[in-house]
């Protein structure tokens, strides 16, 4: 896949000297779903706002579909749909009129057939004549997505798209995002819900303190950085890890009823067979064993903590 958005050495320094972006390099591939993760104040919204032309960078460059966001602002901005965090809609306007108005702002003529397709895709068609004020919070977020898609963009930025939305509706929104991707839309989302990235992203980017720590295929990231734990439940509690087992760097549970062994799933040899033999030789009787795979959240917390 080729990059549809490219940022090079991108910086943003606000009045007062705060550096929100510190030399960001980022390529977003056409047709992918990229999840941008980072703690509050990491620079996620500033990065999105800069790419969308709403914030002027202090240095560096950004191209969208080959158009520079400064020299070719109009051409670049036409390719982008943006769903902001805040729900800012005209409360007494009807849903269909709201979408029509957004399409017109980008210079596109009427196309109610296309708008109907969007509204149906977002399960909003039966609300087309409802006033925005009559909608639930989740429906209003869908209207924001419909507005962002009204001018047929190739790229959709979703800034915290499911903030404040209940778990069931959040999963519905994931289905919507996957449907948009199948239509060829490139999607970039920022999120505090790491399970969101784990569920739908193709690649994961981690940003912290205005710098991109990594951008990597989600599955590959979890393979490389994900650790697996083997929890060994013992028939009889132990007061400490036996000296004969020190080489395995085991962790003893507080009650002494279990030992935990951490290993790398990517290694040729995990050491588990040798460990089981060593446990038996040490006179320990196993009651049960179970494994736990690191989640994306655990990997993310580890990365941010490592770099801070």
Quick tags:
308 residues; alpha/beta; Rossmann fold; Alpha-Beta Plaits; 2 domains; six-stranded mixed sheet; four-stranded antiparallel sheet; 14 strands; 28% strand
Structure description:
33% of the residues lie in helices and 28% in strands. The protein is built from ten helices and 14 strands. Strands 6-7-8-3-9-10 form a six-stranded mixed beta sheet, sandwiched between helices. The radius of gyration is 25 Å and the shape is elongated. One of its GO terms (molecular function) is ATP hydrolysis activity. Keywords: ATP-binding, Nucleotide-binding, Transport. This is Multidrug ABC transporter ATP-binding protein.
What does the oligomeric state look like here?
single chain
The CATH homologous superfamily of the largest domain is named P-loop containing nucleotide triphosphate hydrolases
Low-confidence stretches: none
Shape: elongated
What is the name of the CATH topology of the largest domain?
Answer: Rossmann fold
In short:
This is Multidrug ABC transporter ATP-binding protein. Helices cover 33% and strands 28% of the residues.
Topology:
Blueprint: E1 3-13, E2 19-29, E3 33-37, H1 44-51, E4 59-64, E5 67-68, H2 73-78, E6 80-83, H3 95-105, H4 112-121, H5 137-149, E7 155-159, H6 167-182, E8 186-190, H7 194-200, E9 203-208, E10 211-217, H8 218-225, E11 227-234, E12 251-252, E13 258-264, H9 272-281, E14 286-293, H10 296-307
Parallel strand pairs: 3-8, 3-9, 6-7, 7-8
Antiparallel strand pairs: 1-2, 1-4, 4-5, 9-10, 11-13, 11-14, 12-13
Helix pairs in contact: 3-5
Domain ABC transporter: 5-234
InterPro entries: AAA+_ATPase (IPR003593), ABC_transporter-like_ATP-bd (IPR003439), ABC_transporter-like_CS (IPR017871), ABC_transporter_ATP-binding (IPR050763), P-loop_NTPase (IPR027417)
Organism: Litoreibacter roseus
């Amino acid at each position: 896949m080729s990059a549809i958005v490219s940022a090079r050495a991108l910086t943003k320094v606000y009045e007062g000297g705060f550096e929100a972006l510190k030399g960001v390099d980022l390529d977003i591939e056409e047709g992918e779903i990229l999840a941008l993760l980072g703690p509050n104040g990491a620079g996620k919204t500033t990065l999105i706002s800069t790419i969308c032309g709403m914030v002027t960078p202090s240095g560096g460059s950004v191209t969208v579909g080959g158009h520079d966001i400064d020299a070719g602002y109009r051409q670049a901005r036409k390719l982008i749909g943006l769903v902001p965090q805040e729900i800012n809609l005209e409360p007494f306007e009807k849903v269909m009129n709201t979408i029509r108005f957004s399409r017109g702002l980008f210079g596109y003529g009427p196309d109610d057939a296309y708008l109907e397709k969007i509204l149906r895709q977002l399960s909003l068609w039966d609300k087309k004549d409802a006033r925005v004020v009559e909608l639930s919070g989740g429906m209003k977020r869908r209207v924001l997505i419909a507005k962002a898609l009204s001018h047929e963009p190739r790229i959709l930025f979703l800034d915290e798209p499911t903030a404040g939305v209940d778990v069931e509706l959040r999963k519905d929104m994931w289905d919507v995002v996957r449907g948009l991707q199948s239509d060829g839309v490139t999607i970039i989302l920022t999120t505090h819900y790491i399970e969101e990235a784990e569920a739908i992203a193709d690649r994961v980017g981690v940003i912290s303190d205005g710098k991109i720590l990594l951008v990597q295929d989600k599955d590959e990231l979890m393979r490389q950085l994900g650790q697996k734990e083997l929890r060994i439940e013992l028939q009889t509690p132990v007061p400490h890890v036996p000296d004969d087992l020190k080489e395995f760097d085991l962790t003893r549970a507080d009650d002494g009823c279990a030992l935990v062994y951490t290993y790398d799933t990517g290694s040729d040899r995990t050491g588990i067979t040798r460990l089981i033999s060593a446990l038996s030789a040490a006179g320990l009787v196993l009651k049960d064993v179970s494994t736990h795979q690191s989640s994306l959240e655990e990997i993310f917390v580890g990365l941010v903590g490592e770099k801070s």
